[in-house]
Amino acid sequence: MNLKNKNFLKLLDFTPEEINGLLELSARLKAEKKQGIAHDICRGKNIALIFEKTSTRTRCSFEVAGYDLGMGVTYLDPSGSQIGKKESIADTARVLGRIYDGIEYRGFGQEIVEELGKYAGVPVWNGLTNEFHPTQILADFLTIKERFGTLKGVKLVYLGDARYNMGNSLMVGCAKMGMDFVAAAPEKYFPNASLVAQCKAIAAETGATINFETDPMKAVQGANVLYTDVWVSMGEPAEVWEERIKELSPYRVTMELMNAAAENAVFMHCLPAFHDLKTVIGKEMGEKFGISEMEVTDEVFESERSIVFDEAENRMHTIKAVMAATLKGAEA
Predict the structure, then answer these.
(1) 124-163 pLDDT, tens per residue?
(2) What's the gap between Cα 299 and its chain centre?
(3) Which residues contact 19 (CB under 8 A, 6 or more apart)?
(4) Angle at 130 between CA 129 and CA 135, to 5 degrees
(5) Catalytic positions, please?
(6) pTM check: above 0.85
(7) Tens digits of per-residue pLDDT, 66-111?
């Protein structure tokens, strides 16, 4: 695996061997951190973090990973740069590429991070776009590998709105790694047909399966992982809440669905999750629609089968591996 100076924009750009190499490097760096072994192999380097969409896990993961690797870190919030407003994406990329050794972008269209990657001249990392969330998938797969010892043959069911970054990226990742992927949703919430065709072609080479199911109980039969995400993504208008709650409530992850899956099934969520009314938005939606939970019940979220916080921690370890591999050519 030689990923030095390579962008990390979407998993479609990487081979199964490269993805597995990043997971092995993640596991090594995680073990070293737990043992207190320093790995500041990027001393003297500096990175810029561009956040057009705010975040808790992604920002903290990139910052701590950067510091652990010995780097200087500059955070640019939604008002902290002129990207796309007073300065074009290409110009911003060429300026920051002269100042920094690596650039992270979290924001809107995939075309933005692709253009940054084209012009920056230094590694660019996708912290989330509307279409893809590759660093999250690495964290998810490290967590699954820790739990099951393998990825190949693991059945993952994604319940809910599978049209955007998480549904897309999990489908791509499963196809690459020989896993069995099922999107459980109404048909209008299935991923883009062209991406599905691309993933099925990859699956034909890796032994993965890609399937779609409108019946959630049927979808989870034999599943090892039940995965969901919020029903309304950042940047979407408030009016869509009512529609999503009505159409996606049958796909809420309940203990009944967990019990219908494989005996060893676990629950995963990229967070934040609306599993109670202890958030401002959760309380507002609860009062407006008379519900106490949305995409997952509190019973499932707080159960021993939920591994969401292992998953959240692994964001930092896998992001660290991506930066170490693309900046220094580090391997497991």
Answers:
(1) 999 999 999 999 999 999 999 999 999 999 999 999 999 9
(2) 24
(3) 11, 138, 141, 173, 176, 177
(4) 40
(5) 106, 133, 136, 229, 270, 315
(6) yes
(7) 999 999 999 998 877 777 777 899 999 999 999 999 999 999 999 9
Residues 184, 148, 152: CA angle, nearest 5 degrees: 65
Q: Give residue 56's pLDDT band: very low, low, confident or very high (50, 70, 90).
A: very high
